[in-house]
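SAMPLE LOG
Freezer: B-3
Tube label: C17
Construct: single chain, 220 aa
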Amino acid sequence: MATVERNLTSIAEQRIVLHDVPWETYLSLVTANGEGPVQLTYDQGMLEIMAPSYYHEMISQFLGRLVQTLTEELGMEVRSGGSTTMRSEPARRGAEADQMYHIRHEAAVRGQREFDPALPPDLAVEVDISASSSRRLPIYSTLGIPEVWRCDGERLTFLSLGRGALGQASEYGPIARSLSFPRLSPADLEPFLAKYDSLGENDLVREFRQWVREAQLPQD
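STRUCTURE (predicted):
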């Protein structure tokens, strides 16, 4: 029988965690949820159901606009997957990032209409208002996602997927510069997050676009 672990005290995201949930039940819930308002994370029997808060979604969408602006200004292509369900049936793991992108490997997924676990995204974005993406990192490791951005609304951390002794994906560790956007650091983006509550999004994106142009960030 499934056991339930509740965490509903946060003013941010609301979560319920269930244990001993069959894989087939998870797949049924993914189908029923569709593009619904909750995110489902499954890891070998553990199922987390999370309802994002208004603030969570605002920060997620804003970070997405920054990524889009970076690709435009740096002349890079991008394929945005939003919060697509990414899962590996052999590993019995699945999750939905807040945002995910194919950037360096955009051409490989061009024309595809469904997620292919053999072609993981280059970048996943996680908004951690109440710090729970740690549950998803092992799943992203299994999927082979090389880079994850974690944001608590003010601070931003870039993580890259390490490799073990046999070349297999292991754990994520912090990096000073983005893999997707070389020479871009978390400190470059945090000033724009700090202004989010005081400026309109379009004004802030225009300011960020100008910064990218003046910084002359290289593509490689």
